[in-house]
Each structure stands twice: as structure tokens, then as C-alpha cells.
Amino acid sequence: MRWMRIGVLIALVQPLLIMQQCRFPIIQVSPASLTFAPQVISPGGAPGPSQTITVTNAGNVAGNLPAFTITPAYSLTNNCPTSLPAKATCTFDVTFAPNSLGLTNGLVSSGGRTVSLTGTGVAPITFAPESLDFGTISIGSSASHPVTLTNNQSSAAAINSIISSGDYSQTNNCPNFLPAGGSCTLNVSFVPTVKGTVVGTVTVTTDAALGTPPLGLTGTGLGTTTAAVSFTPPTLDFGNLEAGSTSAVRTVTLKNTSSASTLSIASVTASGGYSSTDDCSGKVLAAGGTCTISVKFAPFANLVPLDYPGAVSVTDGDPTGVQVIGLSGSGVAPVNPSPRSLDLGVIYSGNTSPAKTVTFTNIDSSAETPTLAATGAFALSHSTCTSSLAPQATCKADVTFGPGTPGSVIGVLSENFSSGGFLSPQIVNLSGCLTEVNRIPETFNFGLVTSGVTSAPETLTIKGGAFNFTGFTLSGTNAAEFAIANNTCSSTSGSATCSLDVTFTPAAGGVRTATLQIADDQNCSPQPVSLVGGSSAGPFILTGLLNGLGGGNLNSNPTGLDCGSQGTTCSVNFTAGRSVTVAATPDASSEFAGWNGACSGASTCQVTMDADRQAIATFTTKPSLTVSISGNTAAVGRVTSAPPGIDCQLPQGAGSCQSYFSTGTSVTLTAAAGTGTSFDGWSGPCSGKNSCTVTMNADQNIGGSFTGPPTISVTPGGNGAGTVTSTPAGINCPSSQCSSVFPSGTTVSLTASAASGSGFDGWSGPCSGTGSCSFTATSDQNVMATFDLPDFSVAVSPPSPPTIFAGGSTSFVVAVTALGGFSDSVSLSCSAPPNVGVKCGLSPGAIKPGGSATMTITTSGPSGALKLPGLRSIVFSAAWILVPGLLLIGNGHRREKRKKSVLRWLFCATVLIVPCLELGCGGSNGPKSPGTPAGTYTINVNATAGAALQHTTPVTVVVD
Questions:
Q1: Which runs of consecutive H residues, i.e. helices, occur in 420-482?
Q2: CA-CA 20 to 30 A from 239: which of 163, 727, 911, 933?
Q3: Is 578 exposed, middle or buried (0-12, 13-18, 19+ CB in 10 A)?
Q4: What is the structure's pLDDT at 655?
Q5: Concatenated DSSP letters for 485-512?
Q6: CB 679 within 8 A of CB 704
Q7: E-state strands within 123-273
């Protein structure tokens, strides 16, 4: 039987589940991120291979697609319709065409949905590694390193020359033409000839349109040998220069530092990106003699940002060989951002990060106007880049991060400049991580602490929900000098709020740093808290924190901290040594319970800002006193409290009936009744009519009742017209007044007068009938007087539909009631549904108001053969019910004995199939009638008086 019940249940429920599917569009976008292969920078060239974003409507109805936007360096091809059908998909093609070297973030956005994009712009020809540092090598010794040169272009590159400078040399296996995507190897050697740092480069000249970046070299010679040659200055730094432009001339003075020997100079050459002229080549300098070398910097056009390590090599007669002048410079866009990437760190998902600043410098020789825009969870909090920038002028933009959905987030700060061109816009990559773990504060500065002495503990409070903590660790340079003194955060399960106390014990003087790592099961784990100590320089952060179930506000003097209630500034910087007072002001419903953290006790908190401080205030809720007063319409009364707080009045509205009092306060309530009103007494913790005194150790609810003189109100009803007047005078409705106050105990008589063409049908309330209405006014009363136009109403009883079998009959009583003085005869008839064997009749066919008639309803019974459904109808109409149910039933029967199984099969088939046949699932016509089918039928009773008054009243019968 258990399997049979399960089968029948599934058979019945399955169609309902199918019909209840969701009926709205669900737009989904995938994947969540795309990473593009490195792409060669190519002004005017085609973008790299496309990648696909798929848009799916997972709902059951068509949905309109919101607009899709994309950040610079990436482009979007929309293959989707405006409206996407249910269960359909479409795609967007995304391509990457960088205009800058290095990582470039991007974002596709649509209706709150985002797809993160990352790609890297590369030069046509690159070195790996991009520079070499040989370290310290003894003079005369040799060291070598391999470097791979790669052609990133889609066509072969002609290698015209490979030249090294200074104490560096190279050998290579590079062909004259390096195929597309091909690589070759350079072995670079360093043989120092003088002591100290020696710079150099490898310059490769190719036919790449944008040029080939140089390979920077550095190493240090160990020994005592020096050259009798000096350069003033020894190095030249050209700084940032607009790509494609040429710098002003910078000069270096070469001096023969020998006091006795001459110096012959053979040649002066500059490495790639630089050019030189001189009056030194071919000269012989006398002892102490000088000559001048002039250098210019000319970075490649449209290849930014690119650093140019370089050297001017001087070949002369000094035994040390070749001397070099170190060169440096960078090719940048006309308006150059610095830094080119910002990590806003790990912040609580509900907070906004502190701002970080990007500086924009106009490198161009003409004025430029930058236009900035931030995307994703990032925003411009402040910007001075709102007007034209003169050459070499700067402006600044502050970027913030959050709030948002927890997880790692990337974004873009794009900067378009007015001169435009291939290098506009420039992109600043933005990143950050939003976590559910709210760390208050996110940094600690313990200030100056004596070596070997342990500081007072600073408290880290963790809020935000239940977390599973897996550990708290200290890392960093001076991690051993910081310690967790107390931990209320369980290592296995967190709570809504927990805390850590951290101390600092410096082992030596100076600034000491570490990081507290909070490992858990939330996003951005481990979340960092920065720790620093050992300096009294400041500034230091004062953090306010509210604990407890109550509420309040923390304010500081000097001003700055305004935390809680309506205040939102919960941390503020103060200069070192500043004395700050923090006051805790509870809300009206709360009381201040005391301090923790940097302060204790329950008075004001005073701290000296020689380290970061946390002022933690606990507020508890006060007990509430609620007074509810009631009374009749004319009651006038008032309840007040001592001490003040409650002022509750009738008529209601002149003050609050709820107030909060400090724990233990004794509150006395006094009730004052107005003229003609009496106070009936208290309910709740007080009784009687005298004053009520309660002690506020918990919430209290007290009621008070007042009784004023009764108010008598008259409400006219019906579709006719008339007036109601009272004795004693006071009511004359509806012409002037429909309610009036009478002294308690007054006998009030109401008289109804119908207007011409209307009739008075009677009273409801304290009176009934159509005569005069008289009663004693002891409480508020509402009396309805009904006036109607001449008409009648029809009532049929019994009101509940009777149930009969096919072939049976039933009867109803039809009554007619006069309205508005109606007195004519009413004709009665009835109508039944056709072609179902239901008939009706009324006797008599006409009655006067106040009379009644009998309506008889008959149904036809079955006769002859039953009308059988066709096989086709059974299969298609019952398939969803029969198949799953019978399969499950059969599964259960296989476990039974054969005889019982056969009997149960027959029983189940009968239970499932016979009702389907009886309900007429379909089939061929039989020769006889089955009688009135089972169901609910409506019969209309029609009542008519003349041509104007007609009423139809439906009644129902149920045929079983």
C-alpha cells in the first residue's frame, strides 16, 4: 500500500508542478572574467583574436537585454537581439587592442552584471629578462648571463645590429631575419675594469616600426683600480618625456684627472634612445684638461610607458679601457598618470576605503585638459583635474573603493586628454578586495615605546557575522615584537562580534612593523591588519566604537570624531601628543554603561594621542514606559508623569505615550479628567483611580480609561432621501448635524421623515422597525436610518446550495420584501442551464411584497448504457497521471507474492481508471443518456414589476 500511495501522489502532483514553473526572464552572463594573450602595440593595427561572452535567458519568458558597456583598450561586438527569447542564448565578441605597455584592466558592464577583462600590451621586440644585474665581481673576472630576444610581431623582423657598451660584451645566435614569434639568445658578459658601479646597455636595431627597447645592464667592480677620467655629472636623468619628442640638450664635462699624463680620446657614442655630440673625439687632453659631451633623449613614439637605461661610452687611452656615463629617462604619454596602478587593499564590504591619489602631469609642450572616469566598485572622491593643465603642471584625483559585493574586484581609472591621438586614453589599473570581515581598526600605530617594555594593549574588534576562523598569525620584519594578548574569537566558529588585544614590545629603537593576518572562510582571507610602532611622529588615529544593545553618539574635543546615531565619522587623525576628550551621549532610549579600550569608568574619556587609540563605549537600552489611554468620543483626559516623559491626552495627539527612563527610576503617573469626563481607572501593574507609581526595572505597559458624555451619531443609508431629527434638539441629519453629545441618562427620541418619492425602511442600532426611535443615552451609539426609493428585494432560502443525485429534485422559498413604500405585485420566473437535464418552476407566478413562492428544481436521471470514453482520449488525457503512478505501484508489487500482486494491480487500475471514465475523459457516443452530469449548476430567479424594476437572484444546486 505504501508504494501505491506514493505512485498516486506523484501522479496527481506532477502536472501541478509543471504548471507552476517560473514566469519571468532570468538574464545570465558568463564567464565572469576573460584573460587575453599578450598583444603587440600597433597604432592603426587590427586588434587581437576575439573572445566570447555568452548571454543566456534562463527564464520562461522573453526578456529585454540592458545595454552593455566596455572600458577603453577593449571593444565589443554585439550579436544579441534587443529581446532574448526564453531559454535562448546569444554572444558578444570582445577584442583587445592595447595602446600602452604592461597590464591593462577592463570591464564589461550591463545592468549590474560585470565581466572582468585583463590583457597585456607588449613591444614588437622584447628581452627576457628585461634587465640584468651582475652583482659584485672582482676586477678582471668575468660573468655571463643568457638573454632571450623575441619577435612578438606577426611578420619577420630584420636584425640590423646588436651593440653593447662599457665593460659589457655579447655574443648571439640571432639570424639576420628573426621569424614571426621566433626567439634567439644573447650571452651577455661583464668584465669590470674599475671599482664601483658600472652601467651599460645592449642596443638592438631592428626594422620594427615602434622601435626596440634597450636592455639595461648593471654590475659592480670589486677592487681598487680607478680611471684617470671623471664625468661631471657622472649620470644624466632626463625624467619623463613625451614619446616621440626630443629633449633639450644636457651636457657632461669630461676631465683628465691625471696630474702628469695626457689622455687621448678616440670616440664618444650613445646607446639606443639617446644621441650625443662632443668636442672630445680625436683630442688629446693635457693633464687636468676637459672637454664637453652633449646628450639628447628621444623616446620612440607611441611606445609608453617605457624606461630607457642607457650609456655614453667614451673610448680613450686610459688603461681601464672604456668609461661610461649612465643615462636614464622614460617615454610617456602627453598626460602621464602616476602611479599607473592602485591597490586599494582589503576593506569591509559595507565600507568605503580611504582615498588613494593618482597624480597627472602634462608632459606635452601645450596645455592639456584631462577627463577622468572610474569604473566598477571604484569612484572619484575628489579631483583637481577639472580645467586646462599648463605644460609641466599637475593635477590630482583621489580614488576610493567600495562598498560592494564581497570578493576580489578590478577596475579602471581612464584618462582622456584633449589632444587625443593613439595614446589617449591612458589607463590606471585599480584593484581591491571586499570582505565580510569588518576589522575595526584596520591599522595600529603603537607610537614610541621603550625598548623591552610592553605597550598597553590595543583592541581589534571584528564584526559582520558568523565566521569560521582558522587562525591569527603575525608576520613581517618585526613580527616577534608584537603579540596577541587576548582572543575572544573562537578558532572554529566566530560570532557576530569578537575581539583581539594586541601588544608591542620593541627589541630595539626605530620603526618596527608587522602584519596581523586573520585567516577564515570568508573572501580576501587572510585579511591584514597593519601594525607599526617605534615612532612618536604621528599622526595617530582615534577610533570610536559602540557596543551593547543601546545606541548613542561619540564626539571628540577637539572636534573630528562623530560616531553613532546620526554621526558617521568613526575615526580621525590627531597630531602626536594631542590631548583629546571623548564624550558619550546616549540616545533617548539608551543609557551609557561605561568605557573600554583606551578609557575606563563611566565619565568622559580623555586620551593623549601618543599612539593609535580606541574609545569603546557600551550603551544599554533603558526600560520603556508605554501608556495607552482610551475613552469614548467625547472623553477629555490627560496622563502625565513625574519625572517628565509621559504626556498622553484625549482627544489623542498632543504628546508621546511612550518614554524611556533610567533603570531603577520611580515614575508616578497622574490622570486628570476634563469637564464632563470621569477617570475610570488603571490597568496593568496599577489599579484604582489614584496616581500610579512604578519602578523602571523592566519595560512597563499601563492603560488608563476615561468616560465622557455619550455621543449619539446618525448615519443615513439607502438610495432614497430623508431627514432625522432628535428630541432634545441636537441632531438634524443630514442638513446640519448628524451627531451630538447628550448628558448621560438623557432619553433621546429620533424621528425619521422620508423625502417626497422615498420611503423610510427602518432603523438599525439601538432601535428597529419604522416607528420613532427612543432610548436612554448612557454610551456612544450609532443609529442608521435607511431611506429607499420605491423598490423591492428578493430573498431565496435556503442560502446554502443543496446536494442531490441525478434524477432528484429540491425546492427553494422565494420571498419579496418592499422597499421605500413599494406595494405593487411582482412577477416571478426562473431560468435553468440548457441541455443538461435541469428544469425549474415557480408557484405562484406573482406575489405581493411580504408574500412568498416555491421554486422546484428537478434533474434527469441516467438511463440505458453508460456513455464510454474512447481509448484515444483515455491515453492522452490520463497519461501524466497513470504512467508515473503505475510504475511506482508496479515497483512495489514486484516484492509481493504473485497472487496478491495480481489482485492489487486490478484494484489500482480500477481506482485510477474508473474515475477517469466517470468524469468523461472523452470517447465515442453511446446510444443512451447518462442523465444530468455531476457538477454545480446555477438557476436564476427573475422578479419583475412593471418595465423599470427588475431583479435577478442566482441560486445553485450540486448534482453528485
A1: none
A2: 163
A3: middle
A4: 58
A5: EEE-S-SS---SEEEEEEEE--SSSS-E
A6: yes
A7: 125-128, 131-138, 143-151, 157-164, 168-172, 177-178, 183-190, 196-206, 215-222, 229-232, 235-242, 250-256, 263-270
Strands (E), 65-194: 69-70, 74-78, 83-84, 89-96, 102-110, 113-122, 125-128, 131-138, 143-151, 157-164, 168-172, 177-178, 183-190
Burial, 702: exposed, middle or buried (Cβ in 10 Å; 0-12, 13-18, 19+)? buried
pLDDT of residue 253: 98
Please give the C-alpha separations between residue 524 and each of 6, 249, 282, 292, 437, in angstroms, as whole numbers. Answer: 48, 50, 65, 57, 9
Specify the amino acid at residue 472.
F
> What's the CA gap between 604 and 612, in Å, rounded?
18
Is residue 764 a contact partner of residue 784, using CB atoms and an 8 Å limit? yes
Mean pLDDT of 223-239: 96
Domains of the chain and any CATH numbers? 27-122 (2.60.40.1510), 125-226 (2.60.40.10), 227-332 (2.60.40.10), 335-434 (2.60.40.10), 441-537 (2.60.40.10), 538-621 (2.60.40), 627-707 (no CATH), 711-789 (no CATH), 792-863+935-959 (2.60.40.10), 871-918 (no CATH)
Assign 868 a pLDDT band (cuts: 50, 70, 90): very low
Query: What does the pLDDT read at residue 488?
Result: 86
Q: Which residues have a Cβ under 8 Å from the Cβ of 83 and sit 6 or more positions away? A: 62, 63, 64, 65
| C-alpha of 41 from chain center | 37
* Mean of pLDDT over the chain: 89
Which pLDDT belongs to residue 66? 86
Given a contact cutoff of 8 angstroms between Cβ atoms, the answer to whether 752 and 760 are in contact is yes
Rg of the chain's alpha carbons, rounded to an integer?
Answer: 48
Centre a 10 Å sphere on the Cβ of residue 515 and count the other Cβ atoms it contains: 17
Q: What is the pTM of this model?
A: 0.67
Cis peptide before 233 (omega within 30 of 0): yes
For the cut 60, the answer to whether the pLDDT of residue 492 exceeds it is no
274-305 confidence digits (pLDDT tens):
999 999 999 999 999 999 999 999 999 999 99
Where b means 16+ CB within 10 Å and e means fewer, 620-659 reads: bbbbebbbebebbebbbbbbbbeeebbebbbeeeeeebeb
Strands, DSSP E only, in 633-772? 637-642, 647-650, 658-660, 666-673, 678-683, 692-695, 700-707, 711-717, 722-727, 732-733, 739-741, 746-754, 759-764
Q: And the C-alpha cell for 125? A: 621586440
**Can you give the pLDDT at residue 671?**
96
CA distance 364 to 393: 10
Coil, helix or strand at residue 138? strand
Count of C-beta atoms within a 10 Å radius of residue 840: 22
Contact between 920 and 38 under an 8 Å Cβ cutoff? The reply is: no
Residue 931 is given by DSSP the state -
* pLDDT score, position 947: 79
- Identity of residue 110: S
CB-CB contact of 535 with 511 (8 Å): yes
Whole-angstrom distance, CA of residue 131 vs CA of residue 756: 111
